[in-house]
Design brief:
269 residues; alpha/beta; Spore Coat Polysaccharide Biosynthesis Protein SpsA, Chain A; seven-stranded mixed β-sheet; four-stranded mixed β-sheet; 40% helix; Lipopolysaccharide biosynthesis protein; Nucleotide-diphossugar_trans
Length: 269
């Protein structure tokens, strides 16, 4: 059954994961993919899938930042409903099964979906260890991104929004701990920059409180304790990311006050 949904994806060099993402939304009448300059096999995979008959609209656009890039992709959608999905995500079988019912609900403009992370060495977390719910599925014209979001872009939806249950998005990101920390280092820099652009002052106490609270939320609140030590390391990664964001924000502000020029008054040393 084809549904009046435009799934939209932004990508760059995602040959490891994008095919299964596309196949998981094959029930959509349109799949918009905006590539920002892939140099691996991503484009060849997309062309193969389009040749198979999947309703792919492949576009090319230089990277604008997460919020602006996803808004560009959203602007290309033509169906009644729009689904934001990342290339390392898949619509789970249970979620796909309830999609027709979600679209048929009167008086609902959007649906929040949860995600189930993949932990290398463990697999997908159990259903009880899911993330919070995110705005992802909405009527066209009722959702929008903030183009100033450099990272962790969210969707603002006008009107009633509900949780979609059961099922969710399977987040298949099989990155090693080394790769995960490289990604979190990059994203924390973007988030620190975004906060600075928005005039949010650094708050040193957050370097102490935020990592602790983040760990508690993920390990206990999101049920990562169910995944043993790999759930512990997954939660700690988030705590480290939280610390890096606040530490970089504070450091950047300090450097703006005291530029890194070698002091000349060093007689006391």
């Amino acid at each position: 059954m084809t549904l009046p949904v435009s799934a939209f994806i932004v990508c760059q060099n995602e040959e490891r994961v994008i095919e299964n993402c596309i196949r998981s939304v094959a029930f959509c009448a349109e799949i918009v993919v905006v590539d920002s300059g892939s140099t691996d096999g991503t484009l060849a995979i997309l062309q193969k899938l389009r040749d198979e008959g999947l309703p792919l609209n492949i576009l090319h656009e230089p990277w604008r930042g997460f919020g602006a890039q996803k808004q560009f992709a959203l602007d290309q959608c033509s169906q009644d409903w729009c689904l934001s999905i990342d290339s390392d995500e898949r619509v789970s079988p249970k979620l796909a099964k309830i999609f027709p019912g979600l679209l048929a609900q009167e008086g609902v403009n959007g649906w929040r979906l949860t995600r189930y992370d993949y932990l290398p060495g463990y697999g997908f977390v159990p259903p009880a260890a899911h993330e919070r719910y995110h705005n992802r599925l909405f009527r066209r014209g009722r959702g929008r991104f903030d183009p100033t979001d450099l990272v962790h872009e969210g969707i603002a939806i006008d009107g009633p929004v509900r949780k979609a249950q059961p099922g969710g998005l399977l987040h298949f990101s099989p990155l090693s701990l080394h790769e995960q920390m490289e990604k979190k280092n990059k994203y924390s820099s973007l988030k620190a920059e975004m906060k600075a652009r928005r005039g949010q002052p650094p708050r040193p106490w957050k370097m102490l409180a935020s990592p602790f609270l983040f760990f508690l939320k993920w390990y206990f609140g999101h049920g990562m304790w169910r995944c043993g030590w790999l759930g512990f390391t997954h939660s700690m990664q988030g705590a480290i990311y939280s610390f890096l964001t606040e530490a970089k924000r504070y450091e950047n502000a300090a450097i703006s006050r005291v530029p890194p020029v070698e002091p000349t008054d060093v007689g006391r040393y």
